[in-house]
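=== RUN LOG ===
request id: a7f3
mode: sequence -> structure
chains: 1
length: 229
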Amino acid sequence: MSYVFKQTLLSFNKYPLKSPFAMTPQYITVHNTANDASAANEVAYHNRNDNEVSYHVAVDDKEIIQCLPFSRNGWHCGDGQGDGNRKSIGIEICYSKSGGARYEAAEENAVQYIATLLKQFGWGVERIKKHQDWSGKYCPHRILDEKRWESFKARVQSALDALNKPLEEGNKVEVLTNTGRAEIRALLKKARENRIISKEVHTDAAIDKYDDMQLLSYQAAVINRTYEQ
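=== RESULT ===
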């Protein structure tokens, strides 16, 4: 599977309601949306409503869209001030109500993306939780209905193993499209000029050589530093 990664971030003025606390993530929490909306529609609704409900990323069969920075909490686990809400990255997998090919593709994209996050943070699959683990809610409902939670984690482990395996010459892990790579490289160069990242380290030559994982990692770092300023 392949996906395009995007960011459509929540407005700052809604932080007091939907993301009031700084966060150092320690876990990844998996959800099913329980409807058949796309990631774009999920995020658009998330960003415009005034409910005290929020999460970090929505995943469908084509796109992965981040709507909260990982340095802010979300209200997605139903455990109040517990570790689910205060220390975990919320991942919503779309199209779970009806299932079928679109959901299967969305779930596989989630598997691959979660593996990239585990690699980025230096974590193992023990950091992956289901919504149910925090508050008892029957979620992710489709994965639970099909009794696939352990196999889901095993798939993430396989994807993580592939990312951690030394790459053979000419064999690259493809996560981003060429357009996505160009957009992130432009973002890094703009951040460099604004002194958010180092000019000495992030030269044009260095940025142009960053692989997909490095680009995603530095992009997350730039976003976090921007919010901290």
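=== NOTES ===
The longest strand covers residues 27-32.
Strands lie at 4-7, 27-32, 57-59, 63-66, 88-93, 128-130.
=== END ===
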